[in-house]
Design goal:
alpha/beta; 7-stranded mixed beta sheet; 11 strands; about 30% strand; globular; disordered N terminus
Length: about 250
């Protein structure tokens, strides 16, 4: 298969399941390698303290990527399962596995046989699906994976703040690769088009996330029979403000 044909096939494949191809490439991890690990750890400290999780609680990190949250949660003393659709990410994360830290490839729309004291879905790892029913299905799967006294957390972007501060274009250079990034809103989705060249080959990927507001989540949760318990606006668990908060963090069961 020629490079051009392969690239076109790649683009066509990601039209409906863009996350399956983009998240499985090494370039995704190169582009986002500068994510703030300390900030992530502070968030986990605050969250587990707020939830008052029991010692050695069973925690599911859903859409765990390479497992940065899973690894830290395990260091805090929890029995952690990290799950992600990306086989490459799980292969990488599994290098850190131990008796109380495991990783597996899993579709978040499907519930787990095991039940967990907490299910965490972090860093805007929701709203990827083409079909709204799949987002609802994911919420139901999360609910069905909780123990009777378990809590779930979705850490999503605050779409109002993101759209108001959207940077239309930028070039980000990481490891000698110039990532040309274009952002826009269309069809109630936030798009990020990513173009770059490496070793003489051109690449194009599109990230597409449903612009879900707190009202959208509330409606879905009611349909799923979920109780929304608390809402925060940042990783220090400060109050959520519709216009200004960076995050939309929801605690539910």
């Amino acid at each position: 298969m020629s490079k051009i044909t392969n690239q076109q096939s790649q683009i066509n494949n990601q039209q409906s399941n863009w996350f399956a191809s983009w998240f499985d490439t090494p370039y995704y991890h190169i582009l986002y390698k500068d994510r703030n690990y300390r900030e992530a750890q502070i968030f986990m400290d605050n969250l587990t303290h707020y939830l008052n999780l029991p010692e050695k609680a069973k925690v599911l990190d859903l859409a765990c990527g390479k497992g940065r949250h899973s690894i830290y949660l395990n260091q805090l003393g929890f029995d952690v399962l990290g799950a992600d659709l990306s086989e490459n990410s799980i292969a990488e994360a599994s290098k850190n596995a131990n008796d109380t830290l495991h990783f597996q490839v899993h579709d978040m729309r499907e519930p787990f046989e095991d039940k967990f004291d907490a299910v965490f879905n972090l860093f805007t790892s929701f709203g990827y699906f083409e079909n709204d029913e799949d987002n609802l299905k994911t919420l139901v799967a999360i609910k069905d994976s909780l123990t009777e006294y378990g809590f779930a957390v979705i850490d999503f972007m605050n779409v109002n703040q993101v759209i108001a501060n959207l940077v239309p274009t930028e070039v980000k250079t990481v490891d000698g690769i110039d990532f040309h990034i274009k952002r826009y809103v269309a069809d109630n989705h936030i798009y990020k088009e990513i173009d770059f060249e490496d070793q003489g080959e051109k690449f194009h990927f599109t990230e597409k996330v449903k612009a879900l507001t707190l009202e959208d989540f509330t409606q879905m949760m009611e349909t799923a029979g979920i109780f929304l318990l608390d809402i925060f606006g940042d990783y220090k668990l400060k109050k959520f403000h519709k216009k200004d908060s960076e995050r939309l963090i929801m605690i539910f069961k």
